[in-house]
Prior knowledge:
Keywords: Annexin, Repeat. One of its GO terms (cellular component) is lateral plasma membrane. One of its GO terms (molecular function) is calcium ion binding. This protein has 344 residues and is mainly alpha-helical. It has four domains: 9-29 and 41-112, Orthogonal Bundle (Annexin V, domain 1), CATH 1.10.220; 116-183, Annexin (Annexin V, domain 1, Orthogonal Bundle); 196-248; 270-339, Annexin (Annexin V, domain 1, Orthogonal Bundle). It is built from 21 helices and no strands. Helix 10 packs antiparallel against helix 11, helix 11 (173-183) packs parallel to helix 13 (214-223) and helix 12 packs across helix 14. It is globular and about 70 Å long. The model is unreliable at 1-7 and 19-29 (pLDDT under 50).
Amino acid sequence: MLLGDGMDRRSLAHEILSQLPLAQQTAAWGTLGTIKPYLGFDAESDVQHLVEAIAGNGADHGAILDVLTNRTSAQRQHITKGFQALTKQDLLKSMEVALSGNLEQVIMGLLKPPAQYDAHELRAAMQGIGTDEDALTEILSTRSNQQLRESLAFYQQDFKADPEKDIASETSGWFKEILLALAKGKREHYTGIIDYALIQQDAETQEPGARGGERTWISIFTQRSPEHLSRVFAQYQKSHGLEVEETIFKRFRGDGQVAMLALASVCRNTPRYFAEKLHNAMKGPGTDDKVLIRILISRSETDLLSIRSEFKKCHGKSLYSCLQVETRGDYQAALLALCRAEDL
């Protein structure tokens, strides 16, 4: 499949990898992430520490975490290249041998570029018995157009498969329509100009009691900017006396309903959406470790500070303290390192 500019996804993946050193210059201290560029970064020194940490019998988990949870993704890519140059071995494969369980999943996720990590999470969500609809919805509804293009490029490169065809074959109904619309990465960018006429048009497009129109709803929810949609939701409530979520409950069913509700939640408040997912992953007996790992890794350089704030605001306790209660051992240490600190 060709992208709009004629570059196939495999070529785009190589382009992304070639630009990773530039990312280190831009992923700086102004973000709301918990992981910042390590100012004393020395790739050669970090490589040596990792070589020593996995040498002999039993890996030094603490040393591995000390390096990898205190470096940005771009810095980790420099470490990966340095490890290959020094040892002639692949760092991911070496870690796969040295580690196991949830700790292994955290470290493997940290060592992949974000777009490649998302690609592998999408693949895992569609492999084996059953489909992880929640993971598909989360990734496709919370990434920017550029992030989606990069992720789908890695998907095609690493798995020699068309991600959109895989989505179409593994899902059905309105849920399939929603995911495919999101995968196209056509969400509009907010320019700062408020289009009141379009807000009114979108809010009035479908009367709550009318039949049909699901495809129009999907188009609006998957293509308009979050800033525009938040105003549409307000106008919809003003015009019809209903929150859009109430109409979604009536109009959609099953996975399609869950996906549309997730889109509404993301557009209203993305950090709160993730905070609720983290809370639900630790609610009741056991924990959904896949969700904890995926969110803490994928949001650690973007908005995890905001997610922590929303978590505390909504649940009266900190994300950090909940992770302390619900996880154990070196896996706990890894998640706490990404979370970074207690919120008092």
